[in-house]
Amino acid sequence: MTNTPCIGKTLISNKVIATSMKTQRAFTLTELMITIAVAAILMAIALPNMRYTIFDNRITSKTNELIGALNFARTEAITRRRLIQVQPVTVTSGNEWGAGWKIMDGATLLRITEYTNDSIVLKAVANTQNNLTYTSKGQVQELNPTLMPSISLSVCPQYKTKDYPPGRLIEIGVTGRATVISNNYAC
User: Fold this and answer.
1) Which end of the chain is more exposed for a tag (fewer CB within 10 A), N or C?
2) Nearest to 64 by CA among 186, 170, 173, 172
3) Are strands 15-18 and 9-12 parallel, antiparallel or unpaired?
4) What is the pLDDT of residues 34-89, one digit of tens each?
């Protein structure tokens, strides 16, 4: 045995021990930069579509909550055999119902739903209906089959650009039943 150093071997106290070279596996800087660039391009394409989808879901959610509230008020009017009123929480110009609504049994508050700055405008269409009163038969007191057979409420994005989805149109008939009549309402 010689004392000359060997490649791949280590001399420790007159004993030669073979060492193995470990290879490291990693990404090169070029590969990493290309991966980040591709990811950025995919995000730039996907982000506007994701924003559209999220806002469309918010409009659908607010529409469903309003229909649920109107159905609740109608059911309570029939069950209690009393007039139940649905009215906006606050009346603001051009967004009568957008801040929310409350359901009242006379002076008693049954339910309240409020929104703050959600960029969704909810207002009466073609009439200035700020209150709905359900009778003990479940009908809307303000409606008349010949003069005013229905009330329409629109649920629309506050900003009307191509990046935002279309609105929804809710119709409340003489019977008091609220339904979505258009999922593609041009606000």
Assistant:
1) N
2) 170
3) antiparallel
4) 999 999 998 888 777 788 888 889 899 999 999 999 999 999 999 999 999 998 88
Where does residue 53 rank: exposed (0-12), middle (13-18), buried (19+ CB within 10 A)?
Answer: exposed
Q: Residue 154 has which token pair?
A: 């629109």
Question: Which residues, in sequence order, are bridge partners of residue 111?
Answer: 103
The model's pLDDT over 87-103, given as tens digits with 9 standing for 90+, comes to 888 766 555 788 889 99
Q: Which domains does the chain have, with CATH numbers?
A: 27-185 (3.55.40.10)
Query: Are the CB atoms for 38 and 44 separated by under 8 Å?
Result: no
User: Which is nearest to 92 in space by CA: 79, 101, 83?
Assistant: 101
Secondary structure of residue 43 in the 3-state scheme: helix
Residue 155 CB partners (closer than 8 Å, separation 6+): 59, 62, 63, 66, 120, 121, 122, 167, 168, 169, 170, 185
Q: Taking the CB of residue 11, how many other CB atoms lie within 10 A of it? A: 14
